[in-house]
What we know:
Chain A is an all-alpha fold and about 260 residues long. Chain A has helices at about 1-30, 35-45, 50-85, 85-100, 105-115, 120-140, 145-155, 160-195, 205-210, 215-245.
Amino acid sequence: MKRFVRILKILLVTAFWLFLWAGLARLVGRELLLPGPLVVLKRLGELILTADFWKTAAVSLLRILLGTVCGVIAGAALAILTARFRLLRALLSPLLTIVRATPVASFILLVLIWVGRDILPSVIVVLMVLPVVWANVAAGIDSTDPLLLELSRVYRFGSAKTFGRVYLPSVMPFFLSACRTSLGLAWKAGVAAEVLTVPKLAIGRMLYESKLYLETVDLFAWTVVVILCSLVIEKLLSAAIDRAGCQRKGAEHDPR
Amino acid sequence: MIHADKVSLSYDGAPVLEDVTLSVPRGAHIALMGPSGCGKSSLLHMIAGLCKPTAGTMTVSAERLSYVFQEPRLLPWLTAAENVAVVCRNKKAASQEAEKWLRVFELDDASEKLPAELSGGMQQRVNLARALAYDCDLLLLDEPMKGLDTAMKQRILAILRDHCRGRTLVLATHDPAEAELLADSIYRFRDRTFQK
Lengths: 256, 196
Protein backbone atom coordinates (compact mmCIF):
# COMPACT_ATOMS: atom_id res chain seq x y z
CA MET A 1 0.00 0.00 0.00
CA LYS A 2 2.83 2.38 0.94
CA ARG A 3 4.58 1.58 -2.34
CA PHE A 4 1.37 2.20 -4.27
CA VAL A 5 0.90 5.61 -2.61
CA ARG A 6 4.52 6.49 -3.35
CA ILE A 7 4.17 5.56 -7.03
CA LEU A 8 0.87 7.45 -7.26
CA LYS A 9 2.54 10.50 -5.74
CA ILE A 10 5.39 10.37 -8.28
CA LEU A 11 2.91 9.96 -11.16
CA LEU A 12 0.79 12.88 -9.95
CA VAL A 13 3.80 15.17 -9.55
CA THR A 14 5.11 14.17 -13.01
CA ALA A 15 1.67 14.74 -14.54
CA PHE A 16 1.46 18.18 -12.92
CA TRP A 17 4.76 19.32 -14.45
CA LEU A 18 3.98 17.79 -17.85
CA PHE A 19 0.63 19.61 -17.92
CA LEU A 20 2.32 22.85 -16.89
CA TRP A 21 4.91 22.38 -19.64
CA ALA A 22 2.19 21.60 -22.20
CA GLY A 23 0.17 24.63 -21.05
CA LEU A 24 3.18 26.95 -21.36
CA ALA A 25 4.08 25.56 -24.79
CA ARG A 26 0.52 26.17 -25.94
CA LEU A 27 0.62 29.69 -24.52
CA VAL A 28 3.88 30.48 -26.34
CA GLY A 29 2.52 28.83 -29.46
CA ARG A 30 5.87 28.49 -31.26
CA GLU A 31 7.69 25.17 -31.38
CA LEU A 32 10.92 26.96 -32.08
CA LEU A 33 10.81 28.71 -28.70
CA LEU A 34 9.15 26.08 -26.52
CA PRO A 35 8.04 22.72 -27.93
CA GLY A 36 5.39 20.77 -26.02
CA PRO A 37 6.09 17.47 -24.23
CA LEU A 38 4.27 15.34 -26.80
CA VAL A 39 6.36 16.67 -29.70
CA VAL A 40 9.54 16.09 -27.70
CA LEU A 41 8.49 12.56 -26.77
CA LYS A 42 7.63 11.80 -30.40
CA ARG A 43 11.06 13.03 -31.52
CA LEU A 44 12.70 11.00 -28.77
CA GLY A 45 10.81 7.96 -30.04
CA GLU A 46 12.19 8.58 -33.53
CA LEU A 47 15.72 9.07 -32.23
CA ILE A 48 15.89 5.87 -30.22
CA LEU A 49 15.03 3.87 -33.29
CA THR A 50 18.27 4.94 -34.96
CA ALA A 51 21.62 3.21 -34.45
CA ASP A 52 23.41 6.57 -34.29
CA PHE A 53 21.44 7.52 -31.19
CA TRP A 54 22.67 4.49 -29.25
CA LYS A 55 26.21 4.92 -30.52
CA THR A 56 26.25 8.59 -29.48
CA ALA A 57 24.70 7.91 -26.07
CA ALA A 58 27.05 4.97 -25.41
CA VAL A 59 30.20 6.92 -26.27
CA SER A 60 29.13 9.88 -24.10
CA LEU A 61 28.22 7.51 -21.30
CA LEU A 62 31.60 5.75 -21.50
CA ARG A 63 33.49 9.04 -21.59
CA ILE A 64 31.69 10.36 -18.52
CA LEU A 65 31.90 7.07 -16.61
CA LEU A 66 35.62 6.80 -17.36
CA GLY A 67 36.16 10.30 -16.01
CA THR A 68 34.01 9.56 -12.94
CA VAL A 69 35.84 6.33 -12.10
CA CYS A 70 39.26 7.98 -12.53
CA GLY A 71 38.13 11.00 -10.47
CA VAL A 72 36.79 8.78 -7.69
CA ILE A 73 39.96 6.68 -7.53
CA ALA A 74 42.27 9.72 -7.63
CA GLY A 75 40.15 11.63 -5.09
CA ALA A 76 40.08 8.73 -2.63
CA ALA A 77 43.80 8.09 -3.04
CA LEU A 78 44.65 11.75 -2.48
CA ALA A 79 42.39 11.86 0.60
CA ILE A 80 44.19 8.87 2.11
CA LEU A 81 47.62 10.29 1.28
CA THR A 82 46.85 13.76 2.64
CA ALA A 83 45.37 12.27 5.81
CA ARG A 84 48.53 10.23 6.28
CA PHE A 85 51.05 12.93 5.39
CA ARG A 86 50.29 16.34 6.90
CA LEU A 87 52.90 18.09 4.74
CA LEU A 88 51.21 16.79 1.60
CA ARG A 89 47.89 18.10 2.90
CA ALA A 90 49.37 21.55 3.47
CA LEU A 91 50.87 21.48 -0.02
CA LEU A 92 47.79 20.24 -1.85
CA SER A 93 45.01 22.06 0.03
CA PRO A 94 45.36 25.30 -2.01
CA LEU A 95 45.10 23.21 -5.17
CA LEU A 96 41.80 21.77 -3.95
CA THR A 97 40.48 25.27 -3.26
CA ILE A 98 41.54 26.50 -6.69
CA VAL A 99 40.00 23.54 -8.53
CA ARG A 100 36.72 24.00 -6.64
CA ALA A 101 36.58 27.74 -7.28
CA THR A 102 37.49 27.67 -10.98
CA PRO A 103 34.49 27.80 -13.36
CA VAL A 104 34.06 24.65 -15.42
CA ALA A 105 34.12 26.72 -18.65
CA SER A 106 37.63 28.00 -17.79
CA PHE A 107 38.81 24.46 -17.29
CA ILE A 108 37.28 23.29 -20.54
CA LEU A 109 38.97 26.03 -22.58
CA LEU A 110 42.28 25.59 -20.76
CA VAL A 111 42.40 21.82 -21.01
CA LEU A 112 41.42 22.04 -24.69
CA ILE A 113 44.86 23.56 -25.29
CA TRP A 114 46.56 20.52 -23.75
CA VAL A 115 44.49 17.47 -24.72
CA GLY A 116 42.45 16.25 -27.68
CA ARG A 117 38.74 16.99 -27.90
CA ASP A 118 37.74 13.33 -27.69
CA ILE A 119 39.36 12.83 -24.29
CA LEU A 120 38.67 16.33 -22.95
CA PRO A 121 35.19 15.62 -21.46
CA SER A 122 36.68 12.75 -19.42
CA VAL A 123 39.47 15.03 -18.14
CA ILE A 124 36.92 17.69 -17.17
CA VAL A 125 34.84 15.09 -15.35
CA VAL A 126 37.95 13.99 -13.43
CA LEU A 127 38.58 17.60 -12.42
CA MET A 128 35.00 18.00 -11.22
CA VAL A 129 34.72 14.68 -9.39
CA LEU A 130 38.17 14.59 -7.78
CA PRO A 131 37.75 17.51 -5.32
CA VAL A 132 34.30 16.30 -4.22
CA VAL A 133 35.55 12.79 -3.45
CA TRP A 134 38.79 14.09 -1.96
CA ALA A 135 37.05 16.52 0.41
CA ASN A 136 34.38 14.00 1.46
CA VAL A 137 36.74 11.09 2.05
CA ALA A 138 39.17 13.37 3.93
CA ALA A 139 36.26 14.54 6.11
CA GLY A 140 35.35 10.89 6.72
CA ILE A 141 38.91 10.02 7.74
CA ASP A 142 39.09 13.09 10.02
CA SER A 143 35.80 12.21 11.69
CA THR A 144 36.84 8.62 12.47
CA ASP A 145 36.24 8.15 16.18
CA PRO A 146 39.62 8.51 17.98
CA LEU A 147 38.33 6.26 20.77
CA LEU A 148 37.91 3.43 18.27
CA LEU A 149 41.41 4.07 16.97
CA GLU A 150 42.70 3.75 20.55
CA LEU A 151 40.80 0.48 20.81
CA SER A 152 42.51 -0.80 17.66
CA ARG A 153 45.90 0.13 19.14
CA VAL A 154 45.24 -1.63 22.44
CA TYR A 155 44.06 -4.81 20.72
CA ARG A 156 46.87 -4.61 18.14
CA PHE A 157 44.67 -4.62 15.06
CA GLY A 158 47.57 -3.71 12.75
CA SER A 159 47.27 -1.46 9.69
CA ALA A 160 45.11 -3.70 7.49
CA LYS A 161 42.62 -4.58 10.21
CA THR A 162 42.40 -0.97 11.44
CA PHE A 163 41.73 0.12 7.86
CA GLY A 164 39.10 -2.55 7.23
CA ARG A 165 37.37 -2.54 10.60
CA VAL A 166 37.61 1.09 11.70
CA TYR A 167 38.46 3.51 8.89
CA LEU A 168 36.57 1.90 6.01
CA PRO A 169 33.14 1.70 7.72
CA SER A 170 33.61 5.24 9.10
CA VAL A 171 34.51 6.68 5.72
CA MET A 172 32.04 4.66 3.63
CA PRO A 173 28.97 6.91 4.15
CA PHE A 174 31.08 9.95 3.21
CA PHE A 175 32.46 8.14 0.16
CA LEU A 176 29.04 6.99 -1.05
CA SER A 177 27.60 10.44 -0.55
CA ALA A 178 30.49 11.82 -2.63
CA CYS A 179 29.83 9.24 -5.37
CA ARG A 180 26.17 10.27 -5.59
CA THR A 181 27.02 13.97 -5.78
CA SER A 182 29.81 13.28 -8.26
CA LEU A 183 27.56 11.46 -10.70
CA GLY A 184 25.26 14.47 -11.06
CA LEU A 185 28.24 16.78 -11.42
CA ALA A 186 29.92 14.47 -13.89
CA TRP A 187 26.96 14.50 -16.25
CA LYS A 188 26.58 18.26 -16.14
CA ALA A 189 30.30 18.97 -16.57
CA GLY A 190 30.83 16.17 -19.11
CA VAL A 191 28.00 17.25 -21.39
CA ALA A 192 29.02 20.92 -21.03
CA ALA A 193 32.53 19.95 -22.13
CA GLU A 194 31.10 18.05 -25.10
CA VAL A 195 29.01 21.08 -26.11
CA LEU A 196 32.05 23.35 -26.06
CA THR A 197 34.52 20.97 -27.73
CA VAL A 198 32.13 19.11 -30.07
CA PRO A 199 33.84 15.70 -30.22
CA LYS A 200 32.86 13.28 -32.99
CA LEU A 201 30.28 11.15 -31.19
CA ALA A 202 28.70 12.94 -28.24
CA ILE A 203 25.39 13.95 -26.74
CA GLY A 204 26.94 17.40 -26.28
CA ARG A 205 27.57 17.61 -30.02
CA MET A 206 23.90 16.79 -30.72
CA LEU A 207 22.85 19.51 -28.28
CA TYR A 208 25.22 21.98 -29.94
CA GLU A 209 24.03 21.13 -33.45
CA SER A 210 20.37 21.30 -32.38
CA LYS A 211 21.01 24.80 -31.09
CA LEU A 212 23.02 25.74 -34.20
CA TYR A 213 20.27 24.64 -36.61
CA LEU A 214 17.48 25.94 -34.35
CA GLU A 215 16.09 22.43 -33.87
CA THR A 216 14.61 23.15 -30.45
CA VAL A 217 12.67 19.87 -30.37
CA ASP A 218 15.93 17.93 -30.79
CA LEU A 219 17.55 20.08 -28.12
CA PHE A 220 14.80 19.13 -25.68
CA ALA A 221 14.88 15.46 -26.71
CA TRP A 222 18.64 15.18 -26.13
CA THR A 223 18.29 17.01 -22.82
CA VAL A 224 15.71 14.41 -21.79
CA VAL A 225 18.26 11.73 -22.75
CA VAL A 226 20.88 13.34 -20.47
CA ILE A 227 18.38 13.49 -17.58
CA LEU A 228 17.29 9.89 -18.09
CA CYS A 229 20.87 8.59 -18.28
CA SER A 230 21.75 10.46 -15.09
CA LEU A 231 18.67 9.08 -13.28
CA VAL A 232 19.25 5.50 -14.45
CA ILE A 233 22.92 5.55 -13.39
CA GLU A 234 22.06 7.05 -10.01
CA LYS A 235 19.40 4.38 -9.44
CA LEU A 236 21.81 1.64 -10.50
CA LEU A 237 24.44 2.99 -8.12
CA SER A 238 21.95 3.15 -5.25
CA ALA A 239 20.81 -0.42 -5.96
CA ALA A 240 24.41 -1.62 -6.07
CA ILE A 241 25.14 0.10 -2.75
CA ASP A 242 22.07 -1.41 -1.10
CA ARG A 243 22.91 -4.82 -2.49
CA ALA A 244 26.45 -4.69 -1.23
CA GLY A 245 25.01 -3.93 2.18
CA CYS A 246 27.38 -1.04 2.60
CA GLN A 247 24.93 1.06 4.54
CA ARG A 248 24.59 -0.87 7.76
CA LYS A 249 22.13 0.53 10.19
CA GLY A 250 24.76 0.89 12.86
CA ALA A 251 26.88 3.31 10.84
CA GLU A 252 27.19 6.49 12.82
CA HIS A 253 27.69 9.19 10.21
CA ASP A 254 25.67 9.86 7.15
CA PRO A 255 26.32 13.33 5.87
CA ARG A 256 23.63 13.12 3.17
CA MET B 1 55.25 -6.02 35.13
CA ILE B 2 54.40 -2.31 35.61
CA HIS B 3 56.83 0.21 36.99
CA ALA B 4 55.93 3.90 37.23
CA ASP B 5 58.75 6.14 38.40
CA LYS B 6 57.75 9.69 39.40
CA VAL B 7 55.24 9.83 36.58
CA SER B 8 53.48 13.15 36.00
CA LEU B 9 50.82 14.06 33.50
CA SER B 10 49.31 17.37 32.55
CA TYR B 11 46.81 18.42 29.91
CA ASP B 12 47.39 21.84 28.32
CA GLY B 13 49.67 22.79 31.21
CA ALA B 14 47.14 21.81 33.89
CA PRO B 15 48.60 19.08 36.14
CA VAL B 16 46.51 15.92 36.47
CA LEU B 17 48.98 13.55 38.13
CA GLU B 18 52.23 14.37 39.88
CA ASP B 19 55.08 12.04 40.90
CA VAL B 20 53.15 8.79 40.77
CA THR B 21 55.42 5.94 41.76
CA LEU B 22 54.09 2.43 41.82
CA SER B 23 55.30 -1.04 41.10
CA VAL B 24 53.03 -3.89 40.11
CA PRO B 25 54.69 -7.32 40.01
CA ARG B 26 53.54 -9.98 37.53
CA GLY B 27 50.29 -11.60 38.69
CA ALA B 28 49.49 -8.87 41.23
CA HIS B 29 46.05 -7.28 41.43
CA ILE B 30 45.89 -3.61 42.33
CA ALA B 31 43.07 -1.08 42.56
CA LEU B 32 43.33 2.65 41.96
CA MET B 33 40.73 4.45 44.02
CA GLY B 34 39.64 8.05 44.01
CA PRO B 35 36.86 10.40 43.04
CA SER B 36 35.74 10.83 39.42
CA GLY B 37 38.17 12.87 37.33
CA CYS B 38 41.12 12.42 39.67
CA GLY B 39 43.28 10.79 36.99
CA LYS B 40 42.61 7.06 37.38
CA SER B 41 41.73 6.67 33.70
CA SER B 42 44.72 8.79 32.68
CA LEU B 43 47.03 6.47 34.58
CA LEU B 44 45.45 3.44 32.89
CA HIS B 45 45.90 5.19 29.53
CA MET B 46 49.59 5.64 30.26
CA ILE B 47 49.94 1.99 31.26
CA ALA B 48 48.26 1.00 27.99
CA GLY B 49 50.63 3.27 26.07
CA LEU B 50 47.83 5.47 24.78
CA CYS B 51 49.43 8.60 26.20
CA LYS B 52 52.91 9.47 27.38
CA PRO B 53 53.79 10.91 30.79
CA THR B 54 54.88 14.54 30.73
CA ALA B 55 57.59 13.61 33.26
CA GLY B 56 58.96 10.42 34.77
CA THR B 57 59.08 6.97 33.23
CA MET B 58 56.46 4.29 32.79
CA THR B 59 57.68 0.77 32.03
CA VAL B 60 55.23 -1.97 31.15
CA SER B 61 56.51 -5.43 30.29
CA ALA B 62 53.22 -7.10 29.37
CA GLU B 63 53.13 -9.15 26.19
CA ARG B 64 49.46 -8.50 25.58
CA LEU B 65 47.11 -6.26 27.47
CA SER B 66 43.37 -6.10 27.48
CA TYR B 67 41.42 -3.01 28.44
CA VAL B 68 37.84 -2.54 29.65
CA PHE B 69 37.34 1.10 28.78
CA GLN B 70 34.99 3.23 30.84
CA GLU B 71 32.78 3.71 27.78
CA PRO B 72 32.06 0.52 25.80
CA ARG B 73 33.80 1.64 22.55
CA LEU B 74 32.02 -0.94 20.45
CA LEU B 75 32.43 -0.77 16.69
CA PRO B 76 28.94 0.47 15.70
CA TRP B 77 28.87 -1.42 12.39
CA LEU B 78 29.61 -4.82 13.95
CA THR B 79 27.22 -7.06 15.85
CA ALA B 80 27.86 -7.91 19.49
CA ALA B 81 29.39 -11.26 18.46
CA GLU B 82 31.58 -9.61 15.81
CA ASN B 83 32.72 -6.99 18.33
CA VAL B 84 33.99 -9.76 20.56
CA ALA B 85 35.35 -11.93 17.75
CA VAL B 86 37.33 -9.04 16.26
CA VAL B 87 39.90 -9.19 19.10
CA CYS B 88 40.26 -12.99 19.17
CA ARG B 89 43.69 -14.09 18.08
CA ASN B 90 42.63 -17.43 16.65
CA LYS B 91 40.65 -16.38 13.58
CA LYS B 92 39.21 -19.83 12.92
CA ALA B 93 37.75 -20.18 16.39
CA ALA B 94 36.89 -16.50 16.83
CA SER B 95 33.14 -16.77 16.39
CA GLN B 96 32.89 -19.76 18.74
CA GLU B 97 35.02 -17.96 21.29
CA ALA B 98 32.84 -14.86 20.97
CA GLU B 99 29.65 -16.87 21.46
CA LYS B 100 31.20 -18.51 24.53
CA TRP B 101 32.02 -15.17 26.17
CA LEU B 102 28.66 -13.66 25.27
CA ARG B 103 27.03 -16.65 26.98
CA VAL B 104 29.17 -16.06 30.06
CA PHE B 105 27.86 -12.51 30.21
CA GLU B 106 24.27 -13.65 29.54
CA LEU B 107 24.12 -12.06 26.13
CA ASP B 108 23.23 -15.15 24.05
CA ASP B 109 20.16 -13.45 22.57
CA ALA B 110 22.04 -10.28 21.73
CA SER B 111 24.86 -11.76 19.68
CA GLU B 112 23.44 -10.68 16.31
CA LYS B 113 22.42 -7.23 17.48
CA LEU B 114 24.26 -4.03 16.64
CA PRO B 115 25.46 -1.87 19.56
CA ALA B 116 22.78 0.72 18.82
CA GLU B 117 20.16 -1.95 19.52
CA LEU B 118 21.61 -2.78 22.95
CA SER B 119 21.01 -1.04 26.26
CA GLY B 120 23.88 0.71 28.05
CA GLY B 121 24.30 -2.20 30.46
CA MET B 122 24.36 -4.74 27.63
CA GLN B 123 26.96 -2.70 25.75
CA GLN B 124 29.11 -2.66 28.88
CA ARG B 125 28.80 -6.44 29.15
CA VAL B 126 29.92 -6.79 25.50
CA ASN B 127 32.86 -4.53 26.40
CA LEU B 128 33.73 -6.91 29.25
CA ALA B 129 33.22 -10.02 27.09
CA ARG B 130 35.57 -8.56 24.46
CA ALA B 131 38.27 -7.81 27.03
CA LEU B 132 38.09 -11.29 28.49
CA ALA B 133 38.02 -12.96 25.07
CA TYR B 134 41.40 -11.40 24.33
CA ASP B 135 44.12 -13.67 25.64
CA CYS B 136 46.23 -11.31 27.74
CA ASP B 137 48.65 -11.22 30.65
CA LEU B 138 47.67 -7.71 31.82
CA LEU B 139 44.07 -6.64 32.29
CA LEU B 140 43.13 -3.00 32.77
CA LEU B 141 39.63 -2.35 34.10
CA ASP B 142 38.28 1.18 34.15
CA GLU B 143 35.03 1.36 36.15
CA PRO B 144 34.00 -2.02 34.71
CA MET B 145 30.65 -2.16 36.53
CA LYS B 146 29.36 1.12 35.16
CA GLY B 147 25.67 0.88 34.25
CA LEU B 148 25.17 -2.63 35.64
CA ASP B 149 22.55 -3.64 38.20
CA THR B 150 23.54 -5.05 41.60
CA ALA B 151 22.77 -8.70 40.85
CA MET B 152 24.66 -8.57 37.56
CA LYS B 153 27.60 -6.82 39.28
CA GLN B 154 27.95 -9.68 41.74
CA ARG B 155 27.97 -12.30 38.99
CA ILE B 156 30.48 -10.33 36.90
CA LEU B 157 32.77 -9.72 39.88
CA ALA B 158 32.91 -13.49 40.38
CA ILE B 159 33.71 -14.02 36.68
CA LEU B 160 36.45 -11.39 36.81
CA ARG B 161 37.98 -12.79 39.98
CA ASP B 162 38.14 -16.19 38.36
CA HIS B 163 39.52 -14.89 35.07
CA CYS B 164 42.22 -12.73 36.65
CA ARG B 165 43.95 -15.61 38.39
CA GLY B 166 47.52 -15.72 37.13
CA ARG B 167 47.11 -12.41 35.30
CA THR B 168 48.13 -8.93 36.35
CA LEU B 169 45.18 -6.66 37.06
CA VAL B 170 44.87 -2.91 37.41
CA LEU B 171 41.40 -1.77 38.39
CA ALA B 172 40.25 1.83 38.49
CA THR B 173 37.16 2.30 40.61
CA HIS B 174 35.50 4.48 43.20
CA ASP B 175 33.65 1.52 44.73
CA PRO B 176 35.51 0.13 47.82
CA ALA B 177 33.62 -3.17 47.66
CA GLU B 178 34.80 -3.79 44.08
CA ALA B 179 38.37 -2.93 45.04
CA GLU B 180 38.29 -5.19 48.12
CA LEU B 181 36.99 -8.10 46.11
CA LEU B 182 39.32 -7.91 43.12
CA ALA B 183 42.54 -6.34 44.38
CA ASP B 184 45.34 -7.41 46.73
CA SER B 185 46.48 -3.85 47.27
CA ILE B 186 44.75 -0.51 46.95
CA TYR B 187 46.28 2.78 45.86
CA ARG B 188 44.29 5.84 46.94
CA PHE B 189 44.40 9.23 45.29
CA ARG B 190 45.91 11.94 47.49
CA ASP B 191 47.49 15.23 46.47
CA ARG B 192 47.55 14.48 42.73
CA THR B 193 49.24 11.13 43.26
CA PHE B 194 48.34 7.57 44.18
CA GLN B 195 49.56 6.17 47.50
CA LYS B 196 49.25 2.67 48.88
